[in-house]
Design a protein that fits this description.
Layout lengths: L2 E9 L2 E9 L24 E2 L4 E2 L7 E4 L5 E4 L1 H4 L7 E8 L9 E9 L4 H14 L2 E8 L2 E10 L3 E7 L21 H14 L11 H13 L9 H27 L1
Parallel strand pairs: 1-7
Antiparallel strand pairs: 1-2, 2-8, 3-4, 5-6, 7-9, 8-11, 9-10, 10-11
Length: 258
């Protein structure tokens, strides 16, 4: 695994040097858009319609559009939002159930660096024994973020980046309002059905069947896959075609003039 972050966890006056690693594999199978005529990959360019030129990365800045259509341009130091602080500051501790799962964003394994193993184990064991999780602030990918640090058996820490509570779209809370009358018999039957279907959660019972099916299709089609054309060769062919076309047009013009 490749480390995505290197810093320290601030636990009171204790500093625990750590690295973060992405905990979940993206189960999305990467697909590319191809030109159906020749099978080559489609390219995307940053294009300025006013200047009618392709723009280089050094000539691009970020901007925020105002209601009147003007843009506030942010320089790189202003765009970063926060300083490059590499400290994950534990600010409070809570019961896991107090934090709404809707706020959870991305999961990361927390690995102690040399010299931090003892403090790492102390924090892990303390969270397990008190059945709590730590709420922390941090700068992740140049953005100020909330996160939760929780223990995972046997003695590992996992960090979850969080959405800020204000990001929740509150309008959704009104979707469950109804004037429908539910009888006690209906409630009892619904509870009975839930009870009958209740069982321990076993991860292996829920494989990604759609991904498996797609992989099987790809494997079956692989023997007939065509190699992608060389972009340089394609460019040369197009250039030759343009030259030939220009020659034909030039020849035709000469014949008309004659």
């Amino acid at each position: 695994m490749r480390s995505l972050y290197k810093g320290i966890i601030g636990f009171g006056l204790v500093a625990i040097p750590i690295q973060l690693y992405k905990a979940m594999d993206d189960d999305k199978i990467t697909m590319h858009l191809l030109h159906v005529v020749c099978g080559s990959r489609i390219q995307y360019r940053k294009h300025c319609p006013v200047c009618d030129v392709d723009v280089q990365p050094d000539d691009v800045v970020r901007g925020v559009e105002l209601p009147d259509g003007r843009y506030v341009i942010l320089q790189p130091d202003e765009d970063s939002q926060t300083s490059a602080d590499r400290t994950i500051n534990l600010v409070s501790f809570h019961q896991l159930g107090e934090i709404d799962p809707v706020l959870y964003r991305q999961a990361y394994w927390v690995k102690p660096l040399p010299g931090g193993e003892k403090a790492y184990r102390l924090l892990t064991d303390t969270l397990q024994e008190t059945r709590t999780v730590g709420l922390a602030t941090m700068t992740l990918r140049q953005k100020f973020s909330l996160s939760v640090i929780r223990p995972v058996p046997p003695h590992v820490l996992m960090l979850h980046s969080l959405y800020f509570p204000e990001s929740l779209r509150e309008e959704g809370r009104t979707f469950g309002q109804t004037t429908a009358v539910i009888s006690e018999k209906e409630r009892d039957m619904a509870k009975m059905l839930v009870t009958q279907m209740q069982e321990p959660f076993v991860e292996e019972n829920y494989p990604n069947l759609a991904r498996r099916e797609l992989l099987e299709r790809i494997e079956a089609l692989a023997p007939n896959a065509q190699p992608a054309p060389d972009a340089r060769v394609t460019k040369e062919v197009l250039s030759l075609m343009e030259q030939l076309r220009a020659s034909v047009e030039q020849r035709t013009q000469r014949e008309h003039q004659a």
